[in-house]
Design a protein that fits this description.
This protein is mainly alpha-helical. The protein has one domain (7-58). The protein has helices spanning 8-23, 43-50. The protein is rod-shaped. The model has no long low-confidence stretch (mean pLDDT 77).
Length: 64
Protein backbone atom coordinates (compact mmCIF):
# COMPACT_ATOMS: atom_id res chain seq x y z
CA UNK A 1 0.00 0.00 0.00
CA UNK A 2 1.42 3.32 -1.06
CA UNK A 3 1.21 6.25 1.38
CA UNK A 4 0.36 9.52 -0.36
CA UNK A 5 2.35 12.45 1.05
CA UNK A 6 1.27 15.94 0.05
CA UNK A 7 3.87 18.65 -0.21
CA UNK A 8 3.84 21.33 2.44
CA UNK A 9 2.81 23.98 -0.10
CA UNK A 10 -0.29 22.03 -1.13
CA UNK A 11 -1.29 21.54 2.50
CA UNK A 12 -0.98 25.25 3.18
CA UNK A 13 -3.08 26.08 0.11
CA UNK A 14 -5.80 23.67 1.25
CA UNK A 15 -5.84 25.18 4.75
CA UNK A 16 -6.09 28.71 3.34
CA UNK A 17 -8.94 27.70 1.01
CA UNK A 18 -10.78 26.05 3.89
CA UNK A 19 -10.36 29.18 6.04
CA UNK A 20 -11.65 31.39 3.21
CA UNK A 21 -14.74 29.24 2.76
CA UNK A 22 -15.49 29.46 6.48
CA UNK A 23 -15.17 33.24 6.53
CA UNK A 24 -17.65 33.55 3.66
CA UNK A 25 -20.37 31.81 5.66
CA UNK A 26 -22.78 34.16 7.35
CA UNK A 27 -25.47 33.55 9.90
CA UNK A 28 -28.57 35.74 9.81
CA UNK A 29 -29.93 36.80 13.16
CA UNK A 30 -33.63 37.72 13.35
CA UNK A 31 -34.34 41.41 13.21
CA UNK A 32 -35.97 43.23 16.09
CA UNK A 33 -38.09 45.34 13.78
CA UNK A 34 -41.56 44.13 12.94
CA UNK A 35 -42.35 43.63 9.29
CA UNK A 36 -45.52 45.72 9.47
CA UNK A 37 -45.37 49.29 10.60
CA UNK A 38 -47.92 50.14 13.25
CA UNK A 39 -49.17 53.69 13.24
CA UNK A 40 -50.97 55.27 16.14
CA UNK A 41 -54.64 55.86 15.41
CA UNK A 42 -55.63 59.55 15.41
CA UNK A 43 -57.80 60.61 18.39
CA UNK A 44 -60.86 61.23 16.22
CA UNK A 45 -60.64 57.79 14.63
CA UNK A 46 -60.15 56.13 18.03
CA UNK A 47 -63.24 57.97 19.27
CA UNK A 48 -65.26 56.56 16.39
CA UNK A 49 -63.96 53.03 17.00
CA UNK A 50 -64.82 53.07 20.72
CA UNK A 51 -68.12 54.89 20.26
CA UNK A 52 -67.32 57.67 22.72
CA UNK A 53 -68.58 61.21 22.23
CA UNK A 54 -65.26 62.89 23.07
CA UNK A 55 -61.76 62.36 21.71
CA UNK A 56 -60.08 63.84 24.82
CA UNK A 57 -59.26 60.44 26.27
CA UNK A 58 -57.50 59.40 23.07
CA UNK A 59 -55.35 62.53 22.59
CA UNK A 60 -51.74 61.73 23.63
CA UNK A 61 -50.81 65.10 25.12
CA UNK A 62 -54.17 66.09 26.54
CA UNK A 63 -54.20 66.14 30.35
CA UNK A 64 -57.51 67.83 31.15
Amino acid sequence: MKIFKTPRFTTQILIILFAVTLTNCSVGIGSTHSSTKTKQVPPGQAKKMTGEKSAKNHAPGHNK
